[in-house]
Amino acid sequence: MTLAGPAYAEGMEISGIISALVVGLIIGALGRLVVPGKQNISIWWTLLIGIVAALLGTLLASAIGVAETRGIDWIELVLQVGLAAAGVAVVEGFRGRPAIRR
Question: What is the pLDDT of residues 23-64, one digit of tens each?
């Protein structure tokens, strides 16, 4: 996934948006699987975390020179899932636990 080219300059097509949503949901779900315990965050938070983690992971992989490899980009995928797990843990810490009322 690159942020250059005519499709990015002119705006994303519907297929690109749908692809981003699907990839974001998968990356977010994998991130939730990595974090131990039950997370009380919505599917929307999972999707948002996944999309942000996928974008940041791709940028980070590009910065360190491992974004374009032959075959499956395992390092990029690990970066994305790791960032998603960190995002899930942070959001869970802020939003997941209900307030204690006394």
Answer: 889 999 999 999 988 888 888 999 999 999 998 988 898 898
The residue segments making up the domain with residue 90 are 11-96
Q: What tokens appear for 15 in the block?
A: 């297929």
Confirm whether 3 is domain-assigned: no
Contact 27, 48 (CB under 8 A): no
Phi, psi torsion values for 46, nearest 5 degrees: -60, -45
Specify if 40 maps to a domain. yes
User: Whole-model pTM?
Assistant: 0.75
Structurally, how many domains does the chain consist of? 1
- Pairwise CA distance, residues 96 & 38, whole Å: 10
3-class SS letters over 32-98? HHHCCCCCCCCHHHHHHHHHHHHHHHHHHHHHCCCCCCCCCCHHHHHHHHHHHHHHHHHHHHHHHCC
Q: What are phi and psi of 38, to 5 degrees?
A: -90, 135
